[in-house]
Amino acid sequence: MAGVEITRQDMTASQLRAAAAKTGDAGAARRMLAIALVLEGVDRKTAALSCGMDRQTLRDWVHRYNAEGVSGLTNRKAPGPRPRLSTAQKQELAALVESGPAPEVDGVVRWRRVDLKRKIEAMFGVEMHERTVSKQLAALGFVRLSVRPQHPKADPAAQEAFKKTSPSGSRRFSPSPPAASRSRSGSKTRPGSVSRAR
After folding, report:
1. Helix, strand, coil share of the chain (percent; to 5)
2. Residue 156 falls within a domain, yes or no?
3. Rounded Cα gap, residues 27 and 185, in angstroms
């Protein structure tokens, strides 16, 4: 650790110990204590080992402390994975799903994951698994691709006019005659028949 000195003078060893006692970050507390030991004159190797690190690690944290102070001793969150599609590309994908495929160009009348997988690769040069396509769609608010297929030459206005002019109501059937009941002996009796006394 020769050549690396603690150049910051804004906190004393006792102040570093007090800050270590208050922080909820155990890793940052160990680093503060290690630097406090060095400020008190403890050799670097002993200071590092007593705080659960090696000399090179302590050296790296001293660099951070010199540059940023106590705030530099906390762990930094690692950046998340790079998005597969940019915001603009996601908006373009959403518009594509909303508008539906062009059968003469895309060869399908409704989107499936496998179709969108190929479309995304062709449009954006991004390869992704069908499961990833599903995740992208879910993030955009599309739960399932279950839109009813529509013929490309279908005329919505004509369909609406047909609904208004077509006869409403279902076909009415005349009620069927009541089923003949059976007598206790098992033979059929006619409804309304009167027994004759002999």
Report:
1. 50, 0, 50
2. no
3. 95
Q: Which two tokens stand for residue 95?
A: 């518009």
Assess if residue 195 is contained within a domain.
no
CA angle 154, 158, 162 (to 5 degrees): 120
Q: How many separate domains does the chain show?
A: 2
pLDDT per residue as tens, the chain (198 positions): 444 688 988 999 999 999 999 998 999 999 999 999 999 999 989 999 999 999 999 999 999 999 999 999 988 776 667 888 888 999 999 999 998 888 888 888 899 999 999 989 888 888 888 899 989 998 888 876 544 455 555 566 766 766 666 565 445 444 555 555 555 555 555 555 444 444
35 contacts 6 by C-beta, under 8 angstroms: yes
Token pair for 75: 């762990």
Angstrom distance (rounded) from CA 35 to CA 190? 109
AA letter at 9: Q
Q: How far apart are CA 58 and CA 39, in angstroms?
A: 13
Q: Which of 3, 56, 58, 54 is nearest to 32 (CA)?
A: 58
Q: Which domain holds residue 130?
A: 87-139
Element (H, E) at 2: none
